[in-house]
């Protein structure tokens, strides 16, 4: 039987897009030679165990409603599901799980992460897959059940560093094409040098700045 533990996390500096690397330790107490484990790792955010500042609670209201209802509305958020293939090992091995991220604020997990100032993000990791190991008659095959899991508290600073590596000092908002066309026309008519300037001008016009 395999057991799993997440022992650390860091920004994935080699990824083409923003990502965090989770160090996953896989242990097998049988003493057999494991040729490989073909895993699928489902990563979920569990927002319930951590405390929130008043400012964080205000930013997360669109996800979970008023904070006095959070006992019923705080539910896990899907972050990613990624494949992992281990090297051969006996006893235990540690593999790096690269978890891709997005700055699309239409994604619930991104809105949650963007709303946090500091502290840690409770992560639940669930596993399934196929185990290939050396048996008495050759290569044997076993299954990894979805019941297998591990937990990790991802520092918000690690998530932010991963995002800043690709979106330094900024973020990303998806707009409908017709809205983007109207915003571009407004920017051009006002001869504004950047999208930030166009949005700041509009916010001033509606009295939000």
Explained architecture:
InterPro entries: DUF6084. This is DUF6084 family protein. With 209 residues, the protein is of the alpha+beta class. Helices cover 26% and strands 38% of the residues. It has seven helices and eight strands; from the N terminus they run βββαααββαβββααα. Strands 3, 4, 6, 7 and 8 form a five-stranded antiparallel sheet that branches. Helix 6 packs across helix 7 (195-205). The longest helix has 13 residues, at 177-189. The N and C termini lie far apart (59 Å). The model has no long low-confidence stretch (mean pLDDT 92).
Task: Describe how the helices and strands are arranged.
Blueprint (H helix, E strand, L loop, with lengths): L1 E10 L7 E10 L5 E12 L8 H6 L1 H4 L5 H4 L3 E9 L6 E9 L7 H7 L5 E16 L2 E7 L4 E7 H9 L12 H13 L5 H11 L4
Antiparallel strand pairs: 1-2, 2-5, 3-4, 3-6, 6-7, 6-8
Helix pairs in contact: 6-7
Tally the helices: 7
Number of domains: 2
**First CA to last CA: what distance?**
59 Å
Low-confidence stretches: none
Share of residues in strands: 35-45%
Task: Look at the structure and give the CATH class of the largest domain.
Answer: Mainly Beta
CATH architecture grouping of the largest domain: Sandwich
CATH topology of the largest domain: Immunoglobulin-like
Mean pLDDT value:
92
User: Could you estimate the helical fraction of the residues in percent?
Assistant: 25-40%
Bulk shape: elongated
Characterize the quaternary organization of these chains.
single chain
Question: Could you give a short account of the major beta sheet?
Answer: 5 strands, antiparallel
Structural class: alpha+beta
InterPro entries: DUF6084 (IPR045730)
Protein name: DUF6084 family protein
Organism: Pseudonocardia xishanensis
């Amino acid at each position: 039987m395999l057991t799993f533990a997440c022992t650390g996390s860091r920004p994935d500096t080699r990824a083409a897009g923003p990502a965090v690397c989770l160090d996953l330790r896989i242990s097998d107490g049988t003493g057999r030679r494991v040729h490989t484990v073909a895993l699928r790792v489902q990563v979920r955010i569990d927002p319930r165990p951590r405390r929130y500042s008043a400012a964080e609670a205000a930013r997360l209201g669109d996800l979970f409603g008023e904070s006095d209802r959070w006992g019923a509305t705080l539910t896990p958020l899907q972050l990613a599901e990624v494949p992992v293939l281990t090297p051969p090992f006996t006893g235990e091995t540690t593999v790096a799980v690269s978890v891709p991220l997005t700055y699309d604020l239409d994604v619930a997990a991104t809105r949650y992460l963007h709303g946090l100032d500091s502290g840690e993000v409770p992560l639940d990791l669930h596993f399934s897959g196929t185990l290939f190991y050396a048996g008495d008659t050759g290569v044997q095959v076993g299954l990894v059940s979805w019941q297998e899991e591990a937990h990790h508290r991802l520092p918000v600073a690690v998530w932010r560093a991963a995002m800043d590596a690709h979106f330094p000092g900024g973020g990303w908002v998806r707009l409908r094409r017709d809205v983007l066309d109207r915003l571009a026309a407004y920017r051009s008519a006002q001869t504004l040098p950047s999208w930030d300037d166009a949005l700041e001008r509009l916010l001033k016009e509606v009295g939000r700045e």
